[in-house]
Amino acid sequence: IAIALERELHRRGLLCRILDGDNIRSGINNNLGFSETDRVENIRRIAEVSKLFLDSGIITIAAFISPNNDIREMAANIIGKDDFLEIFVSTPLEECEKRDVKGLYAKARKGEIPNFTGISAPFEVPEHPALSLDTSQLTLEESVNRLLKLVLPKVKNIK
Predict the structure, then answer these.
(1) In a domain? residue 159
(2) Are 34 and 116 in contact (CB under 8 A)?
(3) How many structural domains does the chain have?
(4) Residue 50 is a catalytic residue
């Protein structure tokens, strides 16, 4: 969803960037694990980088699992509540496991990955997301269109 959204925003001439586990944990957060303390620090750093991007006029798509409402609130406070749009991809766990191209859920089920959100570490459903997307019910195009309806008015207000 993040990649498709980024492509559509670029197609419309808007500057944006995806931050995700692959580009963040291989660089700025490569010293963090998955303990509760490290998860908080991971999201804090992501929020700080997102705020820097935002201050530079870059739409930032932060595609991360934030396991609890306290962490999400911290990120919203860093970024600024007016600029923070929490999107809950509410796809059922069983569907996520079916789609797992990296095999991470299978490894977590075997105990090979400790503190895996939704398996061996808790996940709190967001209390007040700006948008919920159940991708077991929505197509990619439907999901992106819903995101655009949410994001584009905010972008137009910036210009």
Answers:
(1) no
(2) yes
(3) 1
(4) no
Domain extent for 91 = 2-151
Query: Collapsing DSSP states into helix, strand and coil, what is residue 22?
Result: helix
Per the domain annotation, does 157 fall within a domain? no
Cα angle, residue 44 at apex, residues 42 and 47 outer, rounded to 5°: 110
Domain of 146, CATH number, reads 3.40.50.300
Query: Per the residue annotation, which of 66, 120, 136, 143 is the catalytic one?
Result: 66
Assign 87 to helix, strand or coil.
strand
User: Is residue 55 pLDDT above 70, yes or no?
Assistant: yes
pLDDT on residue 159? 47
Average pLDDT over residues 80-108: 91
Structure tokens at 125: 């459903």
